[in-house]
Amino acid sequence: MTAHGSEPLRGLLTTEPVLTTAGVGLFADALRDQAVPVTEVDWQPPMPGTERELAAVLADPRRAEANALAAQRMTASTAALTDVVPAREALGLEKGTFLHAGPPLSWDRASGPMKGALIGAVLFEGLAETPEEAERDLASGAYDLEPCHHRDAVGPMAGVVSSSMWLYELHDEVHDNTSWCSLNEGLGKVLRYGAYGPEVIDRLHWMTKVLGPLLRQAVRSVGPIDITAIIAQMLQMGDEGHNRNRAGSLMLLRELLPGLITAEGSSTDIAEAVRFSGANEHFFLNLGMPAAKLATLAAHGIPGSTIVTTMARNGTDFGIRVSGTGDQWFTGPALTPEGLFLGDYGPEDANPDIGDSAITETGGFGGFAMAAAPAIVKFVGGDVPFALQATQRMYEITQAEHPMFQVPILEFRGTPIGIDVTKVVRTGILPQINTGMAGAVAGTGQVGAGLVTPPAECFPAALSALAREVA
Fold it and tell me: Which helix (H) or strand (E) holds 322?
């Protein structure tokens, strides 16, 4: 309701008027000076140059039904941990082919941590004896590089997967989809952050020879394990599922322990596997990511849908994919997160955003559920009010609320899910992501954690493609 003055309104209405204003705050201030209750709406024009294409996409008669179907599929998807298998078995990954996080990437455009992780994977596979030899072969094009997402898999940070590495295998029985993710190495100097020293390679060999086979025995003994239920529970226990996984990791370990302690193996190996898993606060992250991937797979490929089904970064580019535009990537330069740093590291040490872990936000948790985990601000920066506001802002750019993933402090409201390209372009609100930060120099490892958004240009690019589909 709008009016030129408040007194005439008071004479006409039997109840006190409440005015809603948008835009310049002077109008709202003037009304408050007259003791008129005012609600201000944060509004701004659509992203520049998008008006015509936005109108075309919004007029698409398929859009409303397509988006409702996408949201229904996302929230109905299930995720059960069914197996732990080597990548060569699960994905048919041959030696000399390496998967990586984010959209497609060539060696010459790769960032420091991505190059470091690829060098480490080449060394781990025994394809080179020294880092220098590995780098030379990679630069010559001797190996094939491919995004994890192109095989329905996901990988945190650099996300590098080679044929000998072991993967979690998750299945969605509702839509009959399967997704995979590597095992989590822990924090610090690890391959996914671009480190490739002897301790990194030794740990990977132990994970291949000991941890992977023991986890497979455990899962086959006690599984399938309901990962969707664990995500729902951890959101009510102070985790958000991206950078805080303490409760989720312990719940997962609780499920696996009966199978681990009865597995065939030496007592020393079993004890070390339990210790390693229990001490790793991000043990669950590599289960939450493929669970989110399964949700987005269920929503992918619906004609007319403007729902985002992939957000991923390779340390150079940030890319999104949209349900209604198939497997086309829309990319922009990855931004550098802002947050908290480890030790003496600072902003100049951080690499631009990297990793497939933004699939958690795409699937309705992670940064979209920060209100469920206010303690996350101690790790990624910001404050508690920011964590609450971050989740509340995401409702403005999403299609639905997840019926199982709930936020206690918001009266158990479902988390926002189903990022809508048209809503992002109309409001200018970008998806909120919280993330780890890799060192810009290959071999450094993790330097901190922080907050980041996609580059804005991804969404107008996707809108253009959607508009062409309408035409």
Answer: strand 317-322
Q: Under a CB-based contact definition with an 8 Å cutoff, are residues 160 and 143 in contact?
A: no
Extract long-range pairs of 25-34: CB within 8 Å, 24+ residues apart: 31/6, 34/6
| 127 close to 95: Cβ distance less than 8 angstroms | yes
Torsions phi, psi for 74 (to 5 deg):
-60, -45
The pLDDT tens digits of the residues spanning 110-156 come to 999 999 999 999 999 999 999 999 999 999 999 999 999 999 999 99
**Domain 78-289 carries which CATH code?**
3.90.1710.10
DSSP H stretches of helix in 224-266: 227-235, 246-261
CA distances from 373 to 20, 85, 220, 394 (A): 32, 32, 32, 15
Break the chain into its structural domains and give their ranges: 7-41, 51-74+299-470, 78-289
Q: Are 64 and 303 in contact (CB under 8 A)?
A: no
Distance, CA of 235 to CA of 242 (rounded, Å): 11
Residue 420 DSSP one-character state? B
Cα distances (Å, whole numbers) of residue 216 to 40, 155, 361 = 55, 19, 28
Residue pair 425/466 in contact (Cβ under 8 Å)? The answer is no
Supply the CATH classification number for the domain 51-74+299-470: 3.90.1700.10
Strands 80-86 and 225-226: antiparallel
For 152, the token pair is 């329905």
Give pLDDT tens digits for 437-452.
999 998 888 899 999 9
**Predicted TM-score (pTM) of this structure:** 0.91
Same fold, 51-74+299-470 and 78-289: no
